[in-house]
């Protein structure tokens, strides 16, 4: 009995303990399953919370693993966590977003997969974000212990391009190994506007190496594909650096053959960044017939301060075969410097430079086709200037220092001004105003003055900076004072008075005499400071007149409006050629005639005028407009400018002993066809009769007044044409029912499936005619030419452009250029051809647009013939 009671008591105790354990387990299970809010109807009992934090042991994870998803499930037995729909995992600096993610806590593995369609194809990728960069993959596996990862069909964007690899293995945060990978810089593909790149580079194995500041791709054999078609372009290896910082490296040259210099390598060189603000590029051109060229280039920039570049061409042009008559060897050089200063950096001190100095025969023996295609070989003059300008906060003055160098390729002479300084005093009023409002002649007197110092020499290339050049150097100092005032007379007239004073000093003067032994006039240079002072005064009266002629109502022309601005002025200047001034002297020529000359002749400061001037000048300005009916204008009336300006001017010198009337000049400017056609004209008429004695080329200007022979006439016409002016706008949506897309551009198609689009074009027409005649020659000079410059887009991606000039006097084509370009989205094709003229050359280029590959993946072909040789 006792035993039975003990047994019953034991059973009761055990049952009670088991029941307590079960209650605890059920309660814990209930707590584990409980989620805030209402559970979905299809939720299973083992659904885990929507947001969870899994804290594993220190040896399993180094940080907290944050997860979330629409549906979660935990398998305690297998130590697995399953996340479905909008799944996300955050661990350290990594974030994984996918349609499905599984976490193996035992193996420390995370697996993510993109969204599948009904056929099991990935339609939305897995997006992994780490250290601010995004990676897209179909599938992704990550080991939290080793930090290694494996991705399938991973899409990685680096700098200007993207890498798509069939399989990618991440060894650590710095090294990625990729198998069967494609690299492209196609912007449409990168931005997912197109599912296929227009080109890509394919490699069996690629290694991506990342550091804190840069990354790079290293691959084995790599092949280029265009529009998914393999090309013969295969490289044994490739290294592509990606970095915001500049890095040094070898520049790949282009190669080819030229008729005059043989086979060549162009652009072989090296690039070297220098600090934060400078970079240096040294290029070389090598030719098998002995020619060579070295081209250093330097760029520099300092933000908000200044920027500029320096370049040079130093080389030797070899033509023909050594030992034969056609052999020649010419050294050439070109030095260019551009510097500009940000105006905000220092408003009181500005420095700028535009230097372009070349050897005399540089363009005639150029090794660079670019100088031909950009028409630099047509230059007849080259100018260089360096300028420093200083302004003051409290002083009303501006100091400008300039060094200039001007080259004339026709004469071979150069003008050098080194240095040249100008001090300009700001305009000021001589007298103050009593009432605050200036009125009358005295209160309106203004003064402008300044000092100009110049060192000038004209020399040739061989004398530059040598003793011969310094011996010919002239120094001149010139001061100019200009006074002017004006007032209103009789309400409608403006009366002006002015005076001009010049003071000049120079270090050289000349003396002339006739040498009977050598039968020539000898000019000697005297060194020593000498100078002159001159002055002149003017008085003028000006007004404006208006007139309008109205026509009958209903007429095509409603009115003609005429505005006339006549002015007359009197100028007085003494005869500074008189013996009392000493500025002019005389010598006896071969015939014994007394011939006057200025001792400042050919000097840097000019010569004072000779002869008394008391001249009455006139100028008549005209503006003529017409009002015509117009249906296109909302007001029904349109203004047409017949003459924007039409000026007639001349003078009569009362003090002149002969030919008191000056040349009469007429200048006009107008535009027609909605200001598209621009017309500029000028006409010079000599009121005196000019006769030519038979057998003599030089004419004689007689005193016979009233003939008004044409001495000069010029007319220039310019008309820009375009498809917008003449083309009728087509409503393609109404005309063509079929619409489609080609290369991400929308087109309309006709019944024969031909695409239709706007073909934009431009055509600038220029015409020029000039007629010049003087007493120096019996035969007048005539120039007449017509120029065309235009472009047309055959398709949205094809563009043809060109220019030509036809000389109507010689009836020959002058400089002509033809070119076309093709936009291939990621790369461009350009072709330029100069078929006529001294140089006949073509240039073909195809290359990648992206900066990282622009120097590596390109093809360039050039042809260059010797001057005047058949093409």
Automatic annotation (TrEMBL):
It holds the Pfam family LptD_2. Residues 217-688 form the LPS-assembly protein LptD central domain. InterPro entries: LptD, LptD_2. It comes from the Bacteria. GO terms for cellular component: cell outer membrane; transporter complex. PANTHER family: LPS-ASSEMBLY PROTEIN, LPS-ASSEMBLY PROTEIN LPTD. This is LPS assembly outer membrane protein LptD (Organic solvent tolerance protein OstA).
């Amino acid at each position: 009995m006792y035993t039975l009671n003990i047994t019953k008591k034991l059973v009761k105790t055990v049952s009670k303990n088991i029941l307590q354990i079960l209650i605890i387990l059920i309660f814990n299970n209930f707590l584990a399953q409980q989620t805030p809010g209402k559970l979905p109807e299809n939720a299973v009992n083992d659904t885990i919370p929507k947001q969870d934090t899994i804290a594993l042991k220190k040896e399993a994870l180094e940080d907290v693993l944050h997860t979330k998803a629409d549906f979660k499930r935990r398998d305690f037995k297998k130590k697995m966590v399953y996340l479905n729909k909008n799944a996300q995992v955050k661990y350290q600096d990594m974030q994984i977003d996918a349609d499905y993610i599984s976490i193996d806590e035992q193996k420390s593995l995370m697996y993510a997969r993109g969204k599948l369609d009904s056929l099991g194809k990935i339609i939305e990728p897995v997006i992994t974000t780490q250290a601010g960069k995004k990676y897209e993959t179909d599938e992704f596996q990550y080991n939290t212990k080793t930090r290694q990862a494996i991705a399938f069909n991973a899409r990685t964007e680096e700098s200007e391009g993207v890498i798509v690899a069939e399989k990618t293995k991440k060894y650590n945060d710095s090294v990625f190994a990729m198998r069967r990978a494609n690299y492209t810089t196609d912007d449409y593909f990168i931005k997912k506007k197109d599912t296929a790149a227009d080109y890509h580079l394919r490699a069996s194995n690629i290694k991506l190496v990342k550091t804190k500041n840069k990354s790079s791709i290293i691959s084995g054999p790599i092949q280029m594909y265009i529009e998914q078609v393999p090309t013969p372009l295969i490289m044994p290896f490739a290294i592509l650096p990606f970095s915001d910082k500049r890095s040094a490296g070898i520049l790949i040259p282009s190669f080819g053959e030229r008729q005059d210099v043989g086979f060549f390598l162009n652009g072989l060189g090296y690039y070297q960044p220098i600090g934060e603000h400078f970079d240096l590029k040294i290029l070389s051109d090598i030719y098998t017939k002995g020619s060579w060229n070295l081209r250093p280039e330097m760029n520099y920039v300092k933000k908000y301060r200044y920027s500029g570049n320096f370049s040079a061409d130093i080389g030797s042009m070899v033509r023909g075969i050594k030992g034969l008559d056609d052999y020649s060897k010419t050294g050439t050089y070109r030095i260019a410097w551009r510097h500009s200063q940000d105006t905000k950096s220092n408003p009181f001190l500005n420095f700028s430079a535009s230097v372009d100095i070349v050897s005399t025969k540089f363009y005639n023996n150029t090794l660079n086709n670019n100088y031909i295609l950009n028409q630099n070989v047509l230059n007849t003059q080259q100018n260089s200037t360096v300028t420093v300008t200083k302004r003051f906060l409290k002083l009303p003055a501006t100091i400008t220092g300039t060094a200039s160098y001007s080259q004339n390729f026709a004469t071979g002479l150069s003008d050098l001004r080194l240095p040249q300084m100008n001090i300009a005093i700001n305009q000021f009023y001589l007298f103050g105003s009593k009432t605050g409002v200036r009125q009358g002649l005295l209160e309106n007197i203004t003064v402008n003055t300044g000092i100009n110092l110049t060192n000038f020499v004209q020399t040739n290339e061989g004398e530059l900076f040598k003793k011969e050049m310094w011996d010919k150097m002239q120094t001149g100092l010139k001061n100019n004072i200009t006074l002017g005032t004006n007032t209103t007379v009789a309400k409608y007239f403006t009366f002006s008075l002015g005076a001009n004073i010049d003071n000049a000093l120079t270090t050289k003067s000349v003396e002339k005499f006739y040498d009977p032994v050598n039968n020539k006039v000898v000019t000697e240079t005297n060194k020593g400071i000498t100078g002159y002072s001159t002055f002149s005064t003017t008085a003028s009266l000006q007004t404006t007149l208006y007139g309008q002629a109205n026509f009958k109502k209903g007429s095509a022309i409603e009115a003609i409006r005429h505005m006339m601005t006549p002015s007359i002025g009197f100028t007085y200047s003494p005869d500074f050629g008189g013996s009392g001034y000493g500025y002019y002297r005389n010598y006896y020529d071969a015939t014994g005639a007394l011939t006057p000359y200025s001792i400042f002749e050919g000097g840097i400061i000019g010569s004072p005028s000779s002869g008394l001037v008391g001249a009455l000048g006139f100028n008549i300005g005209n503006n003529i407009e017409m009002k015509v009916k117009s249906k296109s204008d909302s007001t029904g009336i349109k203004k047409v400018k017949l003459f924007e300006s039409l000026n007639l001017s001349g003078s009569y010198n009362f003090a002149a002993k002969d030919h008191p009337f000056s040349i009469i000049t007429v200048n006009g400017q107008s535009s027609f066809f909605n200001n598209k056609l621009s017309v500029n004209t000028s006409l010079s008429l000599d009121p005196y009769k000019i006769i030519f004695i038979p057998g003599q080329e030089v004419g004689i200007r007689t005193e016979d007044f009233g003939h008004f022979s044409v001495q000069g006439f010029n007319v220039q016409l310019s008309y820009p044409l375009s498809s917008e002016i003449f083309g009728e706008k087509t409503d393609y949506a109404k005309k063509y029912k079929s619409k489609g897309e080609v290369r991400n551009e929308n087109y309309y198609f006709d019944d024969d499936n031909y695409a239709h689009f706007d073909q934009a074009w431009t055509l600038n027409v220029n015409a020029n005619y000039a007629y010049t005649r003087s007493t120096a020659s019996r035969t007048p000079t005539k120039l007449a030419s017509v120029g065309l410059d235009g472009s047309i887009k055959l398709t949205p991606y094809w563009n043809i452009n060109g220019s030509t000039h036809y000389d109507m006097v010689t009836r020959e084509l002058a400089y002509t250029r033809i070119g076309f370009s093709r936009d291939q989205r990621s790369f461009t094709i350009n072709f330029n051809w100069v078929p006529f003229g001294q140089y006949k050359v073509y240039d073909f280029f195809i290359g990648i647009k992206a900066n990282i590959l622009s120097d590596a993946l390109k093809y360039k072909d050039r042809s260059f013939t010797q001057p005047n040789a058949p093409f």
